[in-house]
Amino acid sequence: MDEDVLYHLDLGTKTHNLPDMFGDTKFVCVGGSPNRMKAFAQFMHKELEHEGDDNNLKDICAGTDRYCMYKVGPVLSVSHGMGIPSISIMLHELIKLLHHAKCCDVTIIRIGTSGGLGEQRVLLLPGRGDADEKQLRKGVEPGCVVITDMAVDSFFKPQFEQVILDSVVTRSTELDQDLASELLECSRGIKDFPTLMGHTMCTYDFYEGQGRLDGALCSFTSEKKLEYLKRAYDAGVRNIEMESTVFAAMCRLCGLKAAVVCVTLVNRLEGDQIKASHDVLAEYQQRPQQLIAMLIKKHLGLINDKKLLDNAVV
Amino acid sequence: MDEDVLYHLDLGTKTHNLPDMFGDTKFVCVGGSPNRMKAFAQFMHKELEHEGDDNNLKDICAGTDRYCMYKVGPVLSVSHGMGIPSISIMLHELIKLLHHAKCCDVTIIRIGTSGGLGEQRVLLLPGRGDADEKQLRKGVEPGCVVITDMAVDSFFKPQFEQVILDSVVTRSTELDQDLASELLECSRGIKDFPTLMGHTMCTYDFYEGQGRLDGALCSFTSEKKLEYLKRAYDAGVRNIEMESTVFAAMCRLCGLKAAVVCVTLVNRLEGDQIKASHDVLAEYQQRPQQLIAMLIKKHLGLINDKKLLDNAVV
């Protein structure tokens, strides 16, 4: 191709010097909400101790309102909207961008929000007190951070069905296990930070597809819903969101090391509606950001394992 | 339910007086891009000759960045992001909003962008000159407006497969035929306004699902692509987008009169990339808005059929 127009990012190979703009990118963090991804960029600006006012960060995709994108040193923060189709458009164009920019060894992490499922397999962390342990035992309460070990579909299968022209191709949704383990390790370095690893179920729909009784359409009973969600739990699902399978499948095929880290906003075995206050939800949504910041700082040599370990036993 | 929190709209039955805010709504127009839906609200503000500065229109969903919403008299303008899951979340909450607000006789129209397909069945319009006719014969060129008579899936079937818990339910994607015909009629009242009626294909993906060769992943040849798109054309498909099937299915089940009007930005039989300039694309995107404005003004008695007819033969 003579020219590649990355239409939904408002970038292109002829209009922009992509290697100059993006060549040093090592971490890409993606999430649904544009405001949240801006907040993450501002947070990283502080964490990496970059100079200047973090309010002046420029949206690289300002020419379009489909997605937003911010860059802080080696960290790119990009929004992807809601649902598989929306994140898939962004990923196609982002992966082409990284290719055109000649980036290498890129790690990509989705930081999202999700519904949580039921009781938690208690992670006994060295050095935690009884109070912490009790809190962890409470299960996937709102605010708990889930690191995905496997992304599964509505039928609990670790696969993504991609329609190509008019045939259906099944793709693996395997994620990088080392990266997931490293993230879990990092989480132990943050105080009062309920975290667990589990399967993440990815659906095409927030209401009927996730068994919510409070949509405009609902054709099942509360019993049917609970039976389904408990089956999901028994299959290892700990949270539900709407992007992880296609994210895992595309990153895997394109050779990007990928992870999914989502905070839960509601315990779906107890309810459907998200009723926590704005402030509480805002605090929850910072948690995956904190964890990713710690991982990035560790990789950049700004924090060492010893310090992580010291924090863990405080 | 004691309270209904419309989470992604940042509205609720306890926090907002929905009948007061929305009770007089008669037309809801939805589209992917927030900027475009703001522009449509401003355009309607002028068209309906409302007083005050159209720059002061307030985003009713300002508390969230998931969607935006503007109200101009009986017209609601709402963004829905990209793809089936994203529009489906918005529709669930919008339909609940209309219900809580006790709205009746609501017409809902999606105004979107799309890829066009090939040659056009020439619509011989009374009173058009040779030049117009020649332009129409050129086929679904960028800028052409397609009114959907039927929304079909990737397999050219007029249905939407909704996953409910872990079973798949097939729903009809029939749209209101009278409304579609009325829109076609209205289009004849606008000069230099290439319009046609045809099937709209709705896919889960912009790249592989629509046969694009320029995504980050592509496993088929140019010949395979063209063979598929030509089969789509032969099945009656005239444009391709990513929301119409679930939009048609949900509106139908909830008793809303619904239509889909999309402008085409590229002729997919000639290419994959959208390369027109920003200004040209901006002008194209105004076309569905013009058409809907004319329909709304006609329904509100601000323009009559005689005037439409007079315009048509100019």
TrEMBL record, chains A, B:
BP GO terms, sorted: nucleotide catabolic process; uridine catabolic process
Domain Nucleoside phosphorylase: 26-120, 136-296
Residue positions binding substrate: 210, 212
Single GO term (MF): uridine phosphorylase activity
Intrachain S-S bonds: 61-68
Coiled coil: none
Keywords: Disulfide bond, Glycosyltransferase, Transferase
Binding site for phosphate: 66, 110-113
One term under GO cellular component: cytosol
Keyword Transferase: yes
Cross-referenced PANTHER family: URIDINE PHOSPHORYLASE (PTHR43691), URIDINE PHOSPHORYLASE 2 (PTHR43691:SF8)
Family designation: Belongs to the PNP/UDP phosphorylase family.
Record's protein name: Uridine phosphorylase 2 isoform X3
Lineage summary: Eukaryota, Metazoa, Chordata, Craniata, Vertebrata
